[in-house]
Amino acid sequence: MIVAVLLISFILEGIISNVIPLDSLFIPMFSVVALLVTYPLFNDNKIKFLIYSGSLGLLYDLTYTTTPFINTFAFLITALIITLICKFITLNKLNLILIVIFTVLFHETVTYLLLCLFRYRIFNDMTLITGLYSSIISNVIYSYIVYIIIEKICKKHKRKYVK
Length: 163
Hints:
Layout lengths: L1 H18 L10 H9 L7 H19 L5 H19 L4 H25 L7 H10 L1 H21 L7
C-alpha cells in the first residue's frame, strides 16, 4: 500500500502541476504529503522510510526537475523531520493539518535554501514567501483525503494505522 500511495501521489502531482499555473494558490506537493501520511505504515522502520524518501526524491529529480540530487536531499531532510515530529506528536485527524503545514513549509524552505546554496538559481525572499503560502491549501486537502482513505483501508484489513 505504501508504494501505491507514493506512486499515485507522485503521478498526480505531475498531472496537477501541468494543469494548474505556477502562480496559483494550489501548488501541489503531494509526494511530500504522501511521505508524511504513509509514515505510520512503516512501523517505526526509519531506515526503510529514509530509503523510500530518498528514492522518491531521486525519482522526482529525474522526472520533474533539472536539479540533480537537490530534491533527493530535500526529501531525505524532510523525512528526518517527519520522523522527529511523529516521535513526539501522534498523527491523527486533528494534528494532521498542523503537521502537514509545518512539513510543507519546511520542505519548501529546505528546497529553496539548497537551490540557493548550490547556486542553481538565485531567488529573492518573495519567491520563498509566495511558494510557502501557495502550497498549503491543496496539500492540506490532499493529506486529509489520503489519510481517510488509508485509515479506512487499514480498518477494513484490521491493521492498525496509527499508534
